[in-house]
Amino acid sequence: MSDEAAELSKEEADAFREKCRTFLAENAFGRDRDSDPRSEKSMVKTKAFQAKAAEAGLAGLTYSTEYGGAGLTKAHDRIWREEMTAYGTMMFDLTISHGMCLPVLNQFGTEEQKKQFMPGNISGENIWCQMFSEPGAGSDVASLQTKAVLDGEEWVINGQKVWTTLAHLCDYGILVARTDPDQPKHAGISMFIVDMNDPAVEIRPIHQIDGGMHFNEVFFTDLRIPKDWLVPPIHDGWRLATAMLMYERVAIGTGGSSGVNHEAADRLIATAQKRGLINDPVLRQKLMKLYSQETAKSLVSMRTRSELKAGKAPGPGGSLGKLHGATIATMVRDLSLEIVGAEGVAWDAESPDGDRWSKGALSSFQAGIAGGTNEIQRNIIGDRVLGLPREPSVDKGKPFKDLLVGTQDTNS
Questions:
Q1: In angstroms, rounded to a whole number, what is the distance separating the alpha carbons of residues 330 and 286?
Q2: Residues spanned by CATH 2.40.110.10 within the chain?
Q3: Tens-digit pLDDT profile for residues 64-74
Q4: Weakest mean pLDDT among 164-168, 178-182, 322-326
Q5: What is the CATH number of domain 243-385?
Q6: How far apart are CA 210 and CA 318, in angstroms?
Q7: Rounded to whole angstroms, how far apart are CA atoms 308 and 354?
Q8: Whose CA is closest to 176, among 239, 128, 120?
Q9: DSSP secondary structure string, 109-134?
């Protein structure tokens, strides 16, 4: 029994594991994203599953019952994730809602915000998105120009966000906006909760090279939100945003399951066997390298999750898993196209795999961008993990309004 499970007796752990297995056997579902470019079908399944999990006491396991959680232990959460591993990436559509927005609400939200918003998030009744990136503020998020101005008892928000995953299916979002342009760019930023169904919010799909459209542009035109939807403290949003980015990298880098996972290697090994290529010594070596990389990533992910369960907030180490995952995605792309050959670019309409391989290859490029580029992850690892000198900053201490960043024109 693992260290995390030591806080439960064997009888308690076995009983809870059996409860998880029974529930999953009755309610788990598969994912078919090929014919679901906007993730609309999969989200319906995900929300239905999450609602049943909440009813069964298997949602938000470690969150307080006061906020809609199950109020259970880290050991229960560990067992649940272990059992979920057998069902793959079934809960992918909740990666942001549960892996990023929920822990940020729990860590930084006011008591009123937690009681109002966390229960619906945990049960899947309400889906959440994250809105940081802008056309002029991608890797340099602190250059954001979306503005929030206090008008009496309401905040008025104007601006644009981009690359917002599943915004079209979300009920609420967490947004960072500039509240004081007289401060340096990393200051004078605040975090807000916004209603994605408000008429002042316009959502436009981004058509991806792999045929998907789960990213969006989001425009805010005089959006008014209650004064108390600011996640405190005011002007300290960069610290909160940094914490959320750490949660994001942990969510992306570790996935939703526990234990050692080498799903991509297993799939490609089976494909190589089916095609009679498995005895090629060079190919076998590449497959073994992929298997080893996935195993190593799983072990790092297990360590990261253990730290979270020990009460530690996610730190820069989350970038290790994020960068590792992007490296593995590149390996999978190259190796899969090597195995399937011409089928990776042209396929028989009757083929059961269809365009699976080409879509997988095309979608792999986002792994090195979403959640922070590989270059940004290496900078974080070098600076904050290895202690290497930081790159020089030419705008440190200067008021944001005086900087030529993004689309900002200081002459206007």
A1: 13
A2: 130-240
A3: 999 999 999 98
A4: 322-326
A5: 1.20.140.10
A6: 27
A7: 40
A8: 239
A9: --HHHHHHHHHHHHHTSS-EEEE--B
In CATH, which superfamily holds the domain spanning 130-240? Butyryl-CoA Dehydrogenase, subunit A, domain 2 (2.40.110.10)
This prediction's pTM? 0.85
Q: Which residues on neighbouring strands pair with residue 154, listed in sequence order? A: 151, 226
pLDDT per residue over 250-289, tens digit each? Answer: 776 555 555 688 989 999 999 999 999 999 999 999 999 9
The β-bridge relationship of strands 154-162 and 172-178 is unpaired
Greater model confidence, 406 or 123: 123
Of these residues, 4, 83, 248, 294, which one is catalytic?
248
Mean pLDDT confidence for 141-148: 95
- What's the confidence (pLDDT) of residue 3? 42
Name the residue among 45, 87, 30 with its Cα closest to residue 261. Answer: 87
Would you call 202 a catalytic residue per the annotation?
no
> Which residue ranges does the chain devote to CATH 1.10.540.10?
4-126
Alpha helices in 6-157 (DSSP H): 10-27, 40-55, 74-84, 95-96, 102-108, 111-123
